[in-house]
Amino acid sequence: MSNYPGYTPPQQGQWGQQPAQGQGWGQAPPPNQQYPPQGPPQGYQNYAGAPPPQGGWNQPPPQGQYGQQWPPQPNQYQAPGQQFNQPPPPQQYGNWGPPPAQPGYGSPAPQQPYGAPPAQPAYGSPAPQQPYGAPPAQPPFGSAPPMAQYPPTPASLGYGEQQTANINLINEAKALRRAMKGMGTDEKVLINVLSKKDPIQINTLREQYNKEEKRNLIADLESETSGYLEEGLVQIVRGPLDGDCYTLYKAMKGAGTKEAALDDVLVGRSNADINAIKARYLHLYKGSLEEHLRGDLSGGTEQMYMMIIAARRAEDSYPVIPQEIDHAVTQLQSGMGNVISKNNIQVCEILTSKNDAQLRAIAQTYQQRYQKPLEDVVKSKFSGHMEDALLLLLARAQNRPKAEAVRLEESMAGPGTKDMLLVQRVVRCHWDQRFMGQVRDAYKMTYARDLVGRIEGETSGKYERLLVACVK
């Protein structure tokens, strides 16, 4: 019996291959031939953006682009001139491969010393030594695939084992203390010092301030500032991991649940990031993230979020295999069904278990087969929080900068500004200034206006200056 729900054994040889000589379609395979499982590999990224993984925070990586716009070429499974089941030419990708550019916030970061070259491929890069379109080596029938075959996506910068670096930020720590000491507060200094730090730098600065001044930087900021300026500065000083945990905790605390904040933090994250968030959340709030989510959600939405935080999404190194994509699309259409036969859990299992490249492939194949966008079908079949989360998952997979630009606009659109969401979303994107630039470009392309000007029109005073500093 397979460990993977919904699995139907194929009736031919290995996936993506022609039948062995002498073996017709539908005949049993040779005795030692193995079937692949249908489900995702056990084990698996990024939150709205991702830190660059190599050569220092703002150095360009060799390849891979977390969230860069990457419209797949229509009506093809292979790159131009590529035969089915053959590896692509050097320096090329298949239709659902990643664009060869820089990663954004939330993409994998290396687990080696700060600033050293990465040991792992960048977010969304092709599987090592895996020809495009070729099926993976198969495990025995009904068993889980070996994890060593597909390297796990590293945690984002600030989420892995290394949280600080051996760098001297004492002078900046002293400048922060002088800005808050005595009568009045120099908010300009606070903004200038804090708004451009990467996750490792901000964690290091916070630790050195606390040690050197024998004070608590977060407590001092809370005492010396107020309003949304305070919210923004403190969110920055927490760093991305603690900031995510705090956002989740506040989203579930008290009456009602702030579903948009849950989606912002958890939808589309790597397994490594999800596991880091769960461990840190338990340490900070003395209760498991799963327990708190179950207490605030219910029904299908609760089940969907249990799938998300189970951290069993396909790793970025897992390849796009056309036969698996075709099967997923068939299962998706079956799960969509109609009002009576719709299977929400089946749809959520498929979409939350795929990596971004697979989701792009699924969306394109669905459009080709049924002549309608997958997003439109999700809108027609789902509603409420589940609809919002599934649409965000697809949007982030297909164009992450645009998805975050849309989230920023949603926090400012309509009567009034959703200031807390705006602060959280700007800070989350700002951890990688390169990705923040991509979000600005996507915003201008989508709304034909400048993001900085839009924020200036919706905010004011020192709070405005902090957000503009983060965006610029």
Write the layout of secondary structure elements.
Blueprint: H1 170-180, H2 187-194, H3 199-213, H4 217-224, H5 227-252, H6 259-266, H7 271-285, H8 289-296, H9 299-309, H10 322-336, H11 344-352, H12 356-370, H13 374-381, H14 384-398, H15 400-412, H16 419-430, H17 433-447, H18 451-458, H19 461-471
Structure description:
By secondary structure, this protein is mainly α. The chain has a domain at 315-398: Annexin V, domain 1, CATH 1.10.220. 49% of the residues lie in helices and 0% in strands. It is built from 19 helices and no strands. The chain has helices at residues 170-180, 187-194, 199-213, 217-224, 227-252, 259-266, 271-285, 289-296, 299-309, 322-336, 344-352, 356-370, 374-381, 384-398, 400-412, 419-430, 433-447, 451-458, 461-471. Helix 5 (227-252) crosses helix 6 (259-266). The protein starts with 169 loop residues before the first helix and ends with a helix.
